[in-house]
């Protein structure tokens, strides 16, 4: 779905009539492998985002319970929402570079006559150096 979303976003107006048309055209023109472009940099992004989210959420919740809750063991919905917001923000900041690389790899298939290198290394190198 990420590849379809990216192609629909960067495609010319009227190039695809919808998600199913986009999928059919990509399958016919580029084959099955096109749906897995950006898969490798996506895995570390998911793992790092989830790990950071869990660690920051638990750490901030426990900090609040130890320092501000008194005898209460229930942090309440507002504190949980704040901890979750902080955790999600930290996870997204940490994993954004990998998401950017994934999107570049998925969008690189359109090239005007010239062959492009769709590797993880090439995308990371050209995007950050």
Description:
- This protein starts with a helix and ends with a helix.
- It folds into two domains: 1-36, no CATH class; 39-128, no CATH class.
- The chain is elongated and about 65 Å long.
- The longest helix has 31 residues, at 77-107.
- Helix 3 runs antiparallel to helix 4 (77-107) and helix 4 crosses helix 5 (120-128).
- It contains five helices and no strands.
- It has helices at residues 2-10, 19-30, 39-67, 77-107, 120-128.
- It is mostly helical and 129 residues long.
- Helices cover 70% and strands 0% of the residues.
Quick one: how many beta strands? 0
Helix proportion range: 55-70%
Helix-strand string? HHHHH
Helical region count? 5
Taking the sheet with the most strands, its summary is: none
Total discrete domains: 2
Estimated structural class: mainly alpha
C-alpha geometry: elongated
Rounded radius of gyration (Å) = 20 Å
Low-pLDDT parts are 111-115
Q: How many angstroms separate the termini?
A: 29 Å
Subcellular location: Membrane
GO cellular component, one term: membrane
Family: Belongs to the mitochondrial carrier (TC 2.A.29) family.
Main location: membrane
Layout of strands and helices, then pairs:
Blueprint: H1 2-10, H2 19-30, H3 39-67, H4 77-107, H5 120-128
Helix pairs in contact: 3-4, 4-5
